[in-house]
Fold this protein.
Amino acid sequence: MKHLKFILLTVLCLVFGLAGRGYAETNPVAMLTQAQGTVEYSKDGAKWKAVSRNKLLSEGEQVRTAADGAAKLINQTTSTVQDMGANSVVKITANGIEKVSGSLSEPAKTEGDLLESLDKRFAKAQRYTTVRRSVDKAKSTKLETIKEISLSTRYPDLVWSNVGPEYTYELIIDEKPVPIAAGSGDMIRHKISGLAAGKHTYLVKVMQNGQEVYAPKKGNSLTWVDGDALKTLEKGMKEMQSLAPGDDFMLGAYMEDHGFTVAAMDLYRKYFQANPKDVDMRPMLIKTYHDLNLKDLQKNEAVQYQKMLAEQE
């Protein structure tokens, strides 16, 4: 359980790196998650808005709960988690979370430090939300797929961009080709099966009328997770679901942290379907589109994100 609390904090720091554009003037100090019942936040203590989803909190903002309310607060500055009870008010300070009234548990310290490599990786992610103007040109048949991906029997889907409805594909795993039919929409999805646990090489060729029109110069890495590794993963998933029940965003972040980028994308999409007004966390989905080389989806989501930011101003 301590490990999962650490994952929550890792997610928080990841989101701080991603959501900086929306909080350019004041960096977030904490994140509210697992809101239950009536939970509200305010920037000035006068005007209050309901919170039903994950919410980043900056210095000066306040959170309050009604008689039926409760929430978890993750403190980025001290790497701790606190439970906020009913009929309570807290204020976010430069150093963390200050109880004004009611019930706020003692900070639960987590173990371990954030890996510097993760911090650097997440710090770059904000650029994926930028919408760049481009000159219209013919769509290329060049196809890029994710360099490293983990899959399992529960999450067996491999995805890549659809370069056009007139094209089919040939998926090659360990030099064994599998024909893939043409598809509609921005993304092709194929379920993988029959692999032994461990690493495999894969690549995707673009075909037209039975002829190869594009093939990558080298393959990418696919790890099939099974056996003890799968048991460990599923144990962690259950712990995450216990710590953050029903929170697809947190589960998605856990899966992404373990290389299951397609699973993370699907869980983020599910989360935003249920929480369409959530701006703070949206760069996480944009990042998975980028990592999976789903460029059209990334661009569309980035446009939506920038529009939502503008509406907040």
